[in-house]
Amino acid sequence: MKILLIEDEQEFRTAVAEYLKSNDYDCTSVGTLKKGLEKSMNYVYDCVLVDVGLPDGSGIDIINSIKKNNPDTGIIIISAKNSLEDKIEGLHIGADDYLSKPFHLSELNARISSLLRRRTFGGKNHLSFDNLLIKTNEKQVLVSDKLVQLTRKEYDILIYLASNPSHLITKEALADNIWGDKAEMATSFDFVYSQIKNLKKKLHDAGAKDFIKVVYGMGYKFI
User: Fold this and answer.
1) pLDDT over 90 for what percent of the chain?
2) Mapping DSSP to helix (H, G, I), strand (E, B) and coil, where does residue 185 land?
3) pLDDT tens digits, one per residue of 61-72
4) Dist. CA 16–CA 155, nearest whole Å
5) Is the N end or the C end of the chain the one with fewer CB atoms within 10 Å?
């Protein structure tokens, strides 16, 4: 899952980013309104964590921009400001949640997990397709109740495709969603093909039906 962290306090930003990465989130962090707007306009994130008080402007502007361009993106305000007005304004324009600093990182993780479940999985803790079960809390994949060992990227790909059943997902969209900024540096999409191939093989070897269909020259469908 891709997260954008917009926070100007460097030490705090680094701590939060490292914590999220240790919990298998793909976290990009920036420290200004300008960079936050740039990232949020060029890439699609599952969740954006934004401080209201930034050195070059208000995080409210970023929330407005995201809700206009990518309304499905989840937003959590993180701010030292604890006034009722800040909270109401942020929630009124589209933020999903609000955390006042200081807070425990485990609480932030719980808020993110809850938000992603609501937005992506309709509040469910798991996705089930025939004999395939995806436990989103544990980040586990089981086929006929047997655990399938996937890499982080393979799991992210499966979640992204399974969250958009029957939709054609282009290889460009998949690369951007899973690899983010790094996808721009690629000269081809061989890395996508390789990950898909490995994922399909692991699911097949575990006894799952062929859920991931290749639409040649275009992308992939989960059916």
Assistant:
1) 49
2) helix
3) 999 999 998 888
4) 23
5) C
Q: Where in the chain is the domain with CATH 1.10.10.10?
A: 152-222
**Within 13 Å and on the Cβ side, how many CA atoms surround 23?**
21
Cα–Cα dist 12/39, whole Å: 20
Give per-residue pLDDT as tens, 139-155. 899 999 999 999 988 99
Strand partners, 141: 134, 148
User: How far out from the chain centre does Cα 214 lie?
Assistant: 23
Tell which CATH architecture fits domain 152-222.
Orthogonal Bundle (1.10)
Helices (H), 1-56: 10-22, 33-42
CB 152 within 8 A of CB 24: yes
What residue spans in the chain does CATH classification 3.40.50.2300 cover? 2-120
Percentage, residues of the chain above pLDDT 70:
92
pLDDT(97) > 60 = yes
In the structure encoding, which two tokens stand for residue 3, read together? 């997260």
Class of domain 2-120: alpha beta
Alpha-carbon span 223 to 162, nearest angstrom: 8
